[in-house]
Amino acid sequence: MTAPKNAGEDARNGFAIDVRQGLSRSPRSLPPRYFYDALGSLLFEAICRLPWYPITRAESGLLDRFAGEMVSRVRGLDRLVELGCGSGDKVARLAAALPARKRSYEVHLVDVSAQALELSESALARLPSVTAVSHCATYEAGLRAAMEPLGEAGARGATLVLFLGSNIGNFDPAGARRLLAEIRATLRPGDGLLLGADLVRAEADLRVAYDDPLGVTAAFNKNVLLRMNAELGADFRLDAWDHRAIWNAEASRVEMHLVSRTSQRVRVPAAEIEVNFAAGETIWTESSYKYTPESIAALGREAGLEREAQWLDREAHFAMTLFVAK
User: Fold this and answer.
1) 141 touches 9 (CB < 8 A)
2) CA distance 57 to 63
3) For 196-236, how does the pLDDT look when each residue is reduced to its tens digit (9 = 90+)?
4) pLDDT of res. 150
5) 128 or 28, greater pLDDT
6) pLDDT at 152 exceeding the cut of 90
């Protein structure tokens, strides 16, 4: 597993800096990547199994039907790089569809969660034609690490970068464009990007997907408070906070917030901050932007990527789009 020296300390310091900056803003906010410690990753896997959250089932269905076509459209495919690998189920489906050959394929796994990397490695272990390499890192740092050992030009075949689920929706439009531009900058002509994206659908369906009756999404959202308590010495009382999901139609996004039930003061010693929250004040923890098939294509085009193919689940309102670098 590839990780920077003193990775644990560096990660804790980065967490503290982001908490200090986010809780000092108005409105107060936290980056959604901090959902994904070991418990958060397991909670997200549970969310993906809920009947009100169709994204994972839709994507799995598209992979079941079209994985072979997806990998065959990238000529000379030699390696896969998945950003945010989760349980590894999706990358394993694509890797299993690769043509058999004597030399193994490289599959690079990038995730901030060590638990997710372990799950993904296990999912790939049953494939004899795959060599897995893990990078415990952010998308950008992991992508750079995965793409570094390329050797001389022409020494390898094509690379397919995977950014699946609805992960692109966690970035605002400017951030999504920057990320895709950074991915494009690492690609050679003929390399590809397979992008998953949740599509706009009825507001009632979106609200229940992000505020389920079992309260799993609420637990997932509140887990960031538990994580601040455990890793940064904070004194958040979880019973003093509510989960709230809002559909912002104008911005085409679902917003997740933690809402303070009462006036309270919270200390976060490792972040060197104390925060006064008014009753009803929120911490904005995630935005999940929704797309149309046309806006996905436009997003790739702005990053210098050409749409090669697109597969849709119109019932679940989900799209997988293959872009190729020219």
Assistant:
1) no
2) 10
3) 999 999 999 999 999 999 999 999 999 999 999 999 999 99
4) 54
5) 28
6) no
**What does pTM read for this prediction?**
0.87
Name the superfamily (CATH) of residues 55-201+291-325.
Vaccinia Virus protein VP39 (3.40.50.150)
Closest CA to 236 of 260, 202, 212: 260
Judged by DSSP in three states, 133 sits in strand
DSSP 49-96: TSTT--HHHHHHHHHHHHHHHHHHTSTTEEEEEEES-TTSHHHHHHHH
Cα separation of 162 and 123, whole Å?
16
How many CB atoms are located within 10 Å of the residue 323 CB?
28
Identity (one letter) of the amino acid at 94?
L
Residue 281: Cβ within 10 Å count: 17
* CA separation for the pair 322, 67 (Å, rounded): 11
Which of 71, 85, 48, 57 lies closest to 318, judged by CA? 57
| Angle ∠(40,31,18) on CA atoms, nearest 5 | 110
Q: What is the Cα gyration radius of the chain?
A: 20
Q: What is the C-alpha to C-alpha distance for residues 281 and 261, in angstroms, rounded to an integer?
A: 8
| Residues contacting residue 314 through CB under 8 Å, at least 6 positions apart | none
Full DSSP string of 224-253: HHHHHHHHH-----GGGEEEEEEEETTTTE
Scan for tokens 């397991």, then name that residue: 42
SS3 percent helix, strand, coil of the chain, rounded to 5, is 45, 30, 30
CA distance 282 to 278: 9
The token pair that represents 294 in the structure block? 């046309």
- The domain locations on the chain are 7-30+203-289, 55-201+291-325
